[in-house]
Write a structure and sequence with these properties.
Number of domains of chain A: 1
Oligomer: heterotetramer
Order of helices and strands of chain A: HHHHHHHH
Largest sheet of chain D: none
Number of strands of chain A: 0
Strand content of chain A: under 5%
Shape of chain A: globular
Order of helices and strands of chain D: HHH
Number of helices of chain A: 8
Largest interface: A-B, 61 and 61 residues
Shape of chain D: flat
Radius of gyration of chain D: 14 Å
Largest sheet of chain A: none
Helix content of chain A: 55-70%
Chain lengths: 226, 1040, 119, 82
Amino acid sequence: MIKNVAVLIAVIGLVAIFLPIISGFQERDELNELAAQYVEGSINELRVPNVVTSVIVTYRGLDTLGEVTVLFLATVGVGLILKGKKEDRIKISASELLETTSSVLVAMIMVLGIYIFTHGHLTPGGGFQGGVVIASGFLLLLLSNVSLKMNHSIMHFVESLSGVAYVAIGVAGIVLTVGFLNPEVLPLGKFGNLLSAGAVPVIYSLIGIKVGSELTSILVTMGGEK
Amino acid sequence: MVSPIYILILSLSVGFLLSIFDRAGRKFSLTAFYSVLTFNVALMGDWLYRLAVLHVPTFVINTAGFNAPVSINLELGVAEALVLFLANLTGLMAAVYLFDKFREGKVSSLILYLLLVMGVNGLVMTQDIFNMFVFLEILSISTFALTTLKKNLKTLSAGFKYMIAGGVASTFFLLGVVFVYYFAGTLNLGFMTADQFSGIGLIALFLLSVSLFIELKPFPANGWALDVYQSVDSGIVSVIAVVNSAAIGFAFYKIMPLLPSSFLTAFGMAGIVTFFFSNMMGLKQENAKRLLGYSSIGQMGLLLASLVFTIGIEPAVRYLIIGGLFLNHLLSKAGLFWIAGIVKEEKIRNWGVLRNNKPLLVLFGLFIFALSGLPPFAGFWAKWEFVKVLVDSKMFFVLGTVLVGSLFELIFLFRWFTMAVKENADELEPMASPGFSRIFPVSFFGILAAVVSFGAMRCFYGSNWLQVLPVIAVLFITLIDSLPSKVKGFISLAAVAGYGYYLYPLLTGNIQLFFGVIFIAGSAVNLISTLNRKNQSKGFYGFLLMMIFSFGNLLIASTYLEFFLSWEFMTLSSFLLILRGQNAQRASLMYMIFSTAGAYLIMVGFSFAPALSSTAALILSIQDVNLPLISFIVLAIGFMIKSGSVGVHIWLPEAHAEAESDVSPFISAILLKAGVFGLLLLGIAYVSNAPSFDVFYWVGWIGVITAIAGAFMASFQEDAKKLLAYSSMSQVGYIVAALAMITHLGWVSALYLAFNHMMFKSALFIAVAGIYYRTRTRKMYEMGGLISRMPWTYMTVLMSIIAVSGVPPLSGFGAKWLIYTAFITKGWYLQAGVLFFASGVSFLYLYRLIHTIFLGQLKYEHQEIKEAPAWFIIPQYIFLAGIMAISMFPNLIIKPLNAIAMHYFDSSIQIDGLTVMSELGYWNGNLVMYVTMAVFAIPFIMLLLLKGKTQKVKQFNIVYAAERPESPQTTHVAHNMYAHLRKSLGSLSLPRVQEFWNSVAEWSHTLGAFFRRVYTGNGQTYLLHIILYIVVMYAVMGGQ
Amino acid sequence: MISLYTLILGIALLLIGIYAMLTRKNLMKIVIGFSIADTGTHIIIVSLGYLRGKTAPVIDAAVSVSNAVREVVDPVPSALVLTAIVIGLAVTAVMLSFIVEMYKKNKSLSIDDYQELKW
Amino acid sequence: MIPIIIIGLGIIMIAAAFAAIYFKSLLASIITAGVISLLASVIYLILGSPDVAMTEASIGSGLTTVIFLFALHRVRKGNSDD
């Protein structure tokens, strides 16, 4: 009873905290100085049509590196917590037809994923979204009982190497240009082209690969490996 | 000059690759892992050196080729470098501590650990609040996962509670971040100003700050943290408690400039509340790691409060306070958690097992002392300055809470320590000897704590090697501790003599010289009795020298701080000496508690005092200082605690009685005089600048009541040492009363009494030491008739009690004459009357002492015992010689005392040859001696003549008429000797005081037990606490 | 004023999520609550980045290069939310793996069965 | 028009949120929570953030739900209470 009252007070209190924000909220009309700088810079300096991508990969690249690291830590952490026990995994009675179909499907999904992260600087989407799509491909394999054993160890390599490559491009930024994670280590190219915007698509692809493999790892660990 | 960004780069690359390295073998992954951690430490050390010593400007790292605020930037200034150097160092050491786990466990734990440390580095350096969020998440997730390094139900459920709390806190942090962006248009701290936030904009700041604050575990929204501290592997806990907290605390520090003062005050208060309640709840805690958890949380609270309440003061002082508290917490808490992991016993009661491993026990003590804020450790300096700041800014509520909280902390820490030193551990499994990887970090931090403390001292106060001599003495004796005790005894004697020789020219004032004789010469003579020690007595001489040197340093202390430093050294060393007694666990703890309470009052009193203009010794320069009334009051109470005044005396009898028998003379005869010295210091200030309220009138009354209460209590004791202890209390009461008169004659008599008491009480305690050495008992009714077996000792006791009681012809008579004259000239007739009555009572116990021990029938088991060893007899007779000398020639001492007092008052006595004259009469010690001797000679001759008619009765020449009593001792006349008297005193009898303090203790424990009930163990309730905490903080801050 | 509506929606979801975390006994439900609160937070963030009548910050047919600054919504909150979503997933995954292990040890999903540590 | 869509979506989402926390079946709760995320991604689209919408749809409603389901599978017995 006391607890219920306390919960009630807590929730009402939170409402009281947020209420002034709602009542004082004004929809913004124009970009603030910083955001305007991003939009201008993205188009003119980095030649990235998708401003969100340039913010993610370039201006706030350190965040994104950190984000990839968080996901990596979750992968490793889930692995550490769900230590070793071979669980019975989700079984879907897979027929040969299903296996074959899913293999084909997976191939198509992979292609889609790759498309999404390589075009991250041009269209909405990018490394994270592409990575998830790739992971969903592997999920399908997992569900349809295709052995992932070999893939798993390759996955580790891919995961590690893409991460290291990401950092390496960042370091190249220090060595070749003026700062860590500067995309101008590669030529900026022509606005709107696939191969443009310096290292942005490369970084986003690496992120895509890394995120894909990390998410797959989480899925495999959570789903129970055989 | 390697950019600190490489810490992130290297950690990430190696972190990503570690699982590949591991396939090649654990050797490789471990090598890479430790290399990176070492690299971090080295890089930060280098940067710290550049920034702090070479004064290179703050290093700014822009990322992505743009300047802030467009891109995220990192900054490395002195504060960042210091925090990161220490955090990385702790991280490395904790990793060394975890070496076995890392070698055998999964590679995952290496990766998580490495990236955790990276998260700390990023969090501290980044200037971007969203980037802070990302690094906070890196830190959190790796910590969550690492809590399962030791995986059981407890760690899992604790980890889950941690995640719930951390998850919600970071959600609110994220909200704060985006609201801040909404209002300020930037995420970079360097581009925000406080005036960008007003009205609802403050809510953004509120969310941002309160969520970080929650991560810093404020009471009562911190149950999750306690569970984690208790259950998770010690190595990881040390990282959570120290490294994570440091990083998050630093993040909080970075956003502090944006916060309005109402927020800051609320956070500061919340920190204080946390400090207070954590320590109060710690009182009741029996689980070692949970206890450390309470202490950690409390320390963080204090640290946050110090961050807030030192805003605006001189930066150097501010950094000293914050840095000192932080460093102290970091080193000692990590060290203690590691020791807790090595000991493995959960209950602090079982920590007696630590005695198997002496070096570890020493380290344990060192960390405990550091954490309690004792000198020379960093916390001491920080606390001193912090108290001063609080006093200067008139935050008395905060001050009081901090001091009471600190006292609570000291109580549970020292309780734990005394348990480790004394509690019986015979039935427990002996502790396995820890491997090198476990012992190394602990030792390293122990040494570092010591080095740092001296460094801080040098840095901020210059260095006077004499001030640290007490510690040097301990270190030196530790080095030669394997020598036989007698050798060490002689070395110590030589050291004391050498110290005295060195000190002598520094004692320019007569008053210093006088106390120099009591402190140094008195100690030297008392030291002779310790030469009787047969066993190795490890540590004993170190502590003894430490105490003696701190006595001496009190005399020449030229600032408040130096005085207080020596005072605390004295407290610590005497505590350790008392603790050596066989059953001294409780006694020493009580001593420490009361002493510390007194020390805090002294610290506060000095903080109120105006600055000193002179560089002379404090005792000389104090007369030019205009102390405020509050200083007089608290300092008087502080000093009276040390001198064992009534009401706060309860530590005294036990400490005297339970200390080793050759330690007791030091405590009674010399240590109590330190309290007197303090009161005299206060008196001198009073003479020249008396406050409006007559403090010393009341001090005088307390002295008088102490004198009579002590006398009564002494009469009721069965234990010879307790009897002497209460007698000391009573005698010091006389001294205090005499001092409090603030007249010439009063001071002469007080100092005279002090000197006299030093001699006869030393002699008496050493005599009892000799008796105990032979009979192995302190209960007087178990003795009797020892006059025939120990005539030399008997002689000492006889002469001494004559000197005490104030009957002619010995020195006590002069003392009494002086003091009554002083009272009458002062006009304190009632006080004089009470004291006169007290002297009557003192005959009761003195009679009991000599009668029960030496007269009557010799006990069967004592038929064959011998006289006390020569090492006991020699100092007794040196003191007796002193007593005889000043009895015969009182002017030997009256003259210098007259000179001392004349420095402050007009003389009220004249000295003419051997005669001392006051306005009420005169006293000639020599004459008194001859008259009395003549009076004694007559009955003595009579007795000799009648000798032939005596009939000797054999001891057991008794026929029992009925059955033998159950316990024959209780029928002894000396057993419960003054029971009727006690009865007649009724409710006036003094155990009331004891009861009072017991109920104080009980109440604090009950409150602690009550408040800790908020920690139900339910993760959901903890979350509710967090939400309610946020709501309440909002209400508090919004209300202003 | 559409962003006001979404802001309210976000806050409502946040509060519902927290309410669930405070009242549901089932560990899984608590994590579901967390995940709902997380979603609410993300909606709040995106609402704050919305500009009246503006479009996505992607330069394509709908947005001209020259006039982009006046036509797009704030890209920063989008970028932040992207990061936050991924981090939310990471936290959720770790929470769930804790639950799996806790269940393995204690065969219970009720949070009331996990309070052996207290005081 | 758009405000009405948003209000409609909002009502559905809030109702779904209450449903998710009060459903007896954990499976239903998880799925409902996934639906909330999916609807949220529609909101993001309306608010001009297609990147976020894609991410929310794939991660928030897709992957998170799968992970929940995997976890649920491992604690199968646990969906009886509240």
